[in-house]
Write a structure and sequence with these properties.
Elements: H1 19-29, H2 31-36, E1 39-44, E2 47-53, H3 67-83, E3 90-101, E4 109-119, E5 123-134, E6 137-152
Antiparallel strand pairs: 1-2, 2-4, 3-6, 4-5, 5-6
Length: 155
């Protein structure tokens, strides 16, 4: 599956030396991810992947992953991509996102990739892409743009 373009390495310097542990701990506390069976995939400064195996109870009436489920995992993938660059002693909160559904999310696995476009002191802009994987073939089924807020003093 294609990966999103990544900004230059100098733009991806984490402000928290324990960024990976902070992201993993936050993901573990996010009960909706365990409810739907989502798992963290690739994780790097400014990048996060979330993987979701198919389950019949996550579908809409035609048997595709529900758009709400697609939106849920790409929102978190973008949020955690942004959180990798936030300072210690902070937390992340989504302010806004726009999701375009490009194709039915028809697959055995749904993969959401979040990528930071711009990381500021208070606001972080991310992009997210979602792919439905079936028989090794990836179909780009959704794209998102998101604004995050750094919640300072909220460890």
């Amino acid at each position: 599956m294609p990966h999103t373009a990544r900004p230059a390495q100098h733009a991806l310097a984490p402000r928290n030396p324990d960024w990976e542990a902070a992201v993993r701990a936050s993901f573990a506390r996010q009960k909706v991810m365990s409810l739907i069976g989502a798992e963290l995939g690739a994780l790097a400064p400014g990048h996060c992947e979330i993987r979701l195996p198919f389950r019949d109870d996550l579908t809409q009436q035609n048997g595709y992953f529900h758009a709400g489920i697609t939106g849920t995992i790409v929102d978190s993938a973008g949020g955690y991509a942004g959180y990798t660059l936030m300072p210690a002693g902070s937390d992340v909160l989504t302010v806004e996102f726009k999701l375009n559904l490009l194709a039915p999310a028809d697959g055995d696995l749904l993969v959401a990739e979040g990528q930071v476009l711009k990381s500021g002191r208070n606001l972080v802009i991310t992009r997210g892409e979602v792919y439905a994987i079936r028989a090794g073939k990836a179909t780009h089924c959704a794209t998102m743009q998101q604004t995050l807020m750094t919640m300072h003093g909220k460890a």
